[in-house]
Amino acid sequence: MTRPKRRAPLVGALIAAVVASALLLALSPALTGTAPSAGRGSDGGGQRAESRPERNGESDGAPALSLGGEPIDETALIREIRAQQGAASAHFLKTSGVNPAKNGWRVLDTGDDPAGWIAQEAVSSLARRKAALSIAQDAGLMDDASLAGTAARMDARNRELAEARGRGEVAVGKTSYDIDSWIPYELAAIEAAYEQDPSNPGMDPTDREIEAYWEAHDWTVEGHEGKAPLSSVRANVRAALLRERYRDLVDARTQSLLDAANIPWDALADFARAQLAG
Length: 278
Prior knowledge:
Elements: H1 10-27, E1 31-32, E2 66-67, E3 70-71, H2 74-83, H3 85-96, H4 114-138, H5 150-166, H6 179-195, H7 207-216, E4 220-221, H8 230-260, H9 265-277
Antiparallel strand pairs: 1-4, 2-3
C-alpha cells in the first residue's frame, strides 16, 4: 500500500534532521567497536578492457546516459569522473603498482582499464545519489528528485541563508554552499531526516530487533570492561540499525537503477580517458 506523501519544505526539514543527528552523536556514550558501515562503491576489482583501439584523449562528447529515465548532464558526469581520480590512483597503485595518472590513464599491461574503473565509479555515484533523492521524494521530503535539480536546490538554500544574514540571524553550519559542499550535505541531510521519521519503512524497529542488533555486534563504552550493556548504548544501537537499513535501501535502489540502465561502458571509458588526459 502506498503511503500518502508528507509534503515538507526540504531545507527546513533537512536542517532540523542534521542538527538533531549532531546532538544525538554529541550526547551518546563514547563508543568504539560499533558495527561498521557496509562498504559502498565498487567491489575493488579493476575493469578488464576488451581489445579495442584507444582514442588518445580525443572525445566527441559524453555518450548518451540516463538513470531512472533522467538524462545525465555532461557537466555532472565530468564532475564525478574527475572526483574519482584520487581513488583510482590509490586503487591501481595498490593492485598493480602503477599510478594510472602517470600512465596517461591507458589500459595497463594487466588488461585493467583505469578509465573504465573510473567510469563505473562515476556512474555508480550518480546512481546512488539518484536513489537517495528518489527515496526522499517517496518520503515526502522533496518534490524534485532530479539530479539536474541539485543546483537549483543549492541556490534556493543559499538565498535563504543570505536572507537570514540580512535579518541578522546566526546561521547553523555553513553560510553558503558551492556544488562540491552541497552534494554531501544534501545526501547526509536526507539520510538523517529519513531515519528520524518512524513512519518510514523500517525506521521504527521493535525492542526485539534492537536487542538482536546489539547481540550481533560488539559494543564498548568508556569505563566499562567487556561488552557494554544494551541499557548503556541503546540509542547508539538503534541509530546504527536505522543507518544500516537506510543504506541497504539505497543500495537496492541504486542497483535497480544500474540494472535498468543501458550503459555504453566502452564509450564511457573512452570519454573518461579523454577528460582525465585533457
